[in-house]
Write a structure and sequence with these properties.
By secondary structure, this protein is of the alpha/beta class. The protein contains seven helices and twelve strands. Strand 10 and strand 11 form a beta hairpin. The longest helix is centred in the N-terminal third of the chain and has 13 residues. The two termini are about 20 Å apart. This is 5-formyltetrahydrofolate cyclo-ligase-like domain protein.
């Protein structure tokens, strides 16, 4: 993880530039409680009324589920296996961002989190700005420094894309057609 002094604006700007070049969307908020203030108008503008939510430190710290429900958005946190294919957006918290690629790293030991990142047409990926790293090599070093290598590690760079049908690029065939990375400057840890 980066130290406070190692969080230059250029890591975020580099991440955002690479992600948007791959048709992803990227925004940034200061605090966990600002997540809902950003997402509610975003969901209204995009006519999103149902979301699946994988609870996480950022979503709990910002009271995201309650605030979305208070805004009239139906939030599903249980029975994700049945709900994920039918919701309009999935919200998950991912672990690290890789600035050189505009990629987020998913430690997906939680099946609900993986389903919400793959099945709904929009994936909203939350991450902490402090967990941006400059290179793939640094992200791999962090993965290998975990007490145990996770059973699933995913690298997500923008919406699903394929060119396997007559080599014509198609977005959203094997996963979400839209991808929004929302980076949060506040550091929130499990149990806070």
């Amino acid at each position: 993880m980066l130290n406070q002094g190692e969080r230059p604006k250029n890591l975020y700007e580099g991440f955002r530039e690479k992600l948007t070049a791959m048709a992803g969307e990227c925004s940034r908020v200061r605090r966990a409680e600002d997540i809902a203030a950003f997402l509610i108008p975003f969901f209204r503008e995009n006519k999103i009324r149902t979301v699946g939510l994988a609870e996480s430190p950022l979503t709990r710290a910002g009271g995201l589920r309650e605030r979305l429900q208070g805004a009239g958005i139906k939030v599903t946190t249980d029975n994700i296996r049945q709900a994920a294919p039918g919701v309009e957006a999935g919200i998950t918290q991912l672990k690290w961002g890789i600035a050189e690629l505009g990629t987020l790293v998913q430690i997906g030991t939680n099946v609900d989190q993986r389903l919400l990142s793959m099945l709904p047409p929009l994936h909203v990926a939350l991450a902490q700005t402090s967990e941006l790293v400059p290179t793939v090599a640094e992200a791999l070093r962090l993965i290998h420094s975990l007490p145990e290598i996770p059973g699933f590690v995913g690298f997500i760079t923008g919406p699903s894309r394929t060119a396997d049908i007559e080599r014509v690029l198609t977005i959203g065939v094997h996963g979400p057609g839209r991808f929004l990375a929302l980076l949060v400057d506040e550091d929130v840890r499990e149990g806070e």
